[in-house]
Amino acid sequence: QVQLVESGGGLVQAGGSLRLSxxxxxxxxxxxxxxxxxxxxxKQRELVAGxxxxxxxxxxxxxxxxxxxxxxxxxxxxxLQINSLKPEDTAVYYCxxxxxxxxxxxxxxxxxxxxxxxxxxS
Length: 122
What we know:
By secondary structure, the protein is mostly beta strands. The protein contains no helices and eleven strands. It has strands spanning about 5, 10-15, 20-25, 35-40, 45-50, 55-60, 65-70, 75-80, 90-100, 110, 115-120. Strands 2, 4, 5, 6, 9, 10 and 11 form a seven-stranded mixed sheet that branches. The chain is globular and about 40 Å long.
């Protein structure tokens, strides 16, 4: 069975930082592109960062320069370093795995974690 388990969310003040982790099991991790999505209250789920199997990254314009996605294939783990947090970053953050590099749509990812809440106070 494939499992993706996120951790690292929490409540932080604006300007603070968080590091999210996603531990994967049950799949050939290095063969999958990984993505971090977020979904704020009343909003659609959107990609914030993606990374290919060999480490090429892409970011949403709203987070570029503040968020960094990385992966450790030996640990089957993908990370999202979030700096300079803003209240508008408040959302549930989801880890996802898919076969297509540079996929940006929810439907292009097959496996999903349960999400971890990030709340940014002003």
